Amino acid sequence: MTYTITNDKGEELDATDEQSAIIEFALGNPKRNILINALAGAAKTSTLRFLAKYESIEPTLSVAFNKRIADEMSKVLPGHIRCATMNSVGHRVWGSAVGKRLTLETKKNYNLVKDLIDGLPRRGDREAAWDIFGDITKAISRAKLSGYVPAGTAQGRSLLSADDFFGGLDEAPDNWFIDLVNSALARGIVQAYAGLIDFDDQIYMPTLFGGSFPTHKRVRVDEAQDLSPLNHAMVDRLVPSGTQLTAVGDPWQSIYAFRGADTTSMTRLRERFDMHEMTLSVSFRCPIAVIENVHWRVPHMKWPAWAKLGRVETLETWNADTIPDNSAIICRNNAPLLSCALALLRAKRGVHLVGTDLGPQLIRALKKLGPPELEQKDVFDAINQWEAEKLRRARNAAVVADKAECLRVFAEFGPTLGAAIAYCEHIFAAKGPIQLLSGHKAKGLEWNTVYHLDPHRIPSPWAKEGEALEQEHNLKYVIETRPKAELFYVNLSDLQEGTDA
């Protein structure tokens, strides 16, 4: 049998052999759970549309990682399939559990930590806490993502111990740091019962503190490789006995261990739900040259018969004038991207640094180095001192080294600290047609032309073996499967800023 769907242009699409095999297995085994390994650009959305068309009509929940994807899915899937994010599902569940209209406060952690620091009895303790304010709020968010609940908290169940959670942070915490995080979490939980929540609470509270989850005959989970321990706990609540689960993901695109994702996520799902594993290996995004170029990582990746050859090339030199608009420059580390953006701005090319969180972090760090009139040499000395202090406590030295390198980029371009801060604010405010972003920010996106900047930075020198090295290999695969036409390997040192350079 030939299975077909109609695309957005009104054209009829036939299912590939792999898609047909998935459809036929699902139709023949309506109660079996299915795990689909979908490589980069392998038409996973189309596959879910095929399933929706040919399976019997049953109440179905399709869970996406962000609202944009959920909204896109809702436009192409039939009405019996509810498309939602885990956050929106959890929001409803928790609202019903506490019987209140919930208030979403994005600065909840900020306010909690500020109140706790202001309440510290000694001025020195307050100043020390303010210096690492961002680290404290980051740890609180990480705690929720990991499913950590402080001991003594009423009702909630913790997915890991305090030793396991605090032992996994990038820096070894002092006791007062641990106390602040635990106190903020405990107060935040009380506020959540009163109806005040943030985005993390939308999953954290209903999953670990109770609530009645909706039941469906079928549940679909996207980006299964990126599920955190807390996400897995929510999936357990969404898929009781009698509910059929289909999960889609790419284990080779697992790159978010640094922010709490379970690197064994898909294996964990397969074993937990006894899932039948199937594959989508034909990439409809990447041209032949790009696909052949990633066979080192995914040798089973294929292309359709109509695929174009494409281009993969290492450039000895590259020129700011010839970079196409609407292309992307992607790097493992942020500092080379910042230097590249400054060079392109000098060459009068418009740039856009993707990732709104990095700019404010760097600006805050620069302002803590000293007064605005601090001269460049002293700025570098302050950065060196900051890095040395951070490295003494760091469990993840790569994060510290990258941030220090970013700070030095701006110090290099400013005669004083104030000028360095001004450069930083300017570059992150720019909104031009050339996008610059890290490999982690690039996941899920695509461009006709992609420049892989400083490819020698993968693997990181800090990733020696095991899981850390696997994450680096995955990141390289993600970067190199973003192009729809051309992939260029380039080095920052080889960039010419104009035709006369």
Describe the protein's topology.
Layout: E1 4-6, E2 12-14, H1 17-28, E3 34-38, H2 44-54, E4 60-64, H3 67-76, E5 81-85, H4 86-98, E6 103-104, H5 108-118, H6 123-131, H7 133-146, H8 162-166, H9 175-193, E7 196-197, H10 201-209, E8 218-221, H11 229-238, E9 244-249, H12 265-272, E10 276-280, H13 288-293, E11 311-314, E12 318-319, E13 328-331, H14 334-346, E14 351-353, H15 358-367, H16 376-393, H17 397-412, H18 417-429, E15 434-438, H19 439-442, E16 447-453, H20 466-480, E17 483-490, E18 495-496
Parallel strand pairs: 3-9, 3-10, 4-5, 4-8, 6-7, 8-9, 11-17, 12-18, 13-15, 13-16, 14-15, 16-17
Antiparallel strand pairs: 1-2
Helix pairs in contact: 1-2, 4-10, 5-7, 5-9, 7-9, 10-11, 14-17, 15-18, 16-17
Would you write up a description of this structure?
45% of the residues lie in helices and 15% in strands. With 501 residues, the chain is α/β, with parallel strands linked by helices. The protein has helices at 17-28, 44-54, 67-76, 86-98, 108-118, 123-131, 133-146, 162-166, 175-193, 201-209, 229-238, 265-272, 288-293, 334-346, 358-367, 376-393, 397-412, 417-429, 439-442, 466-480, and strands spanning 4-6, 12-14, 34-38, 60-64, 81-85, 103-104, 196-197, 218-221, 244-249, 276-280, 311-314, 318-319, 328-331, 351-353, 434-438, 447-453, 483-490, 495-496. A 6-stranded parallel β-sheet has the order 5-4-8-9-3-10, with helices on both faces. It is globular. Helix 15 (358-367) runs antiparallel to helix 18.
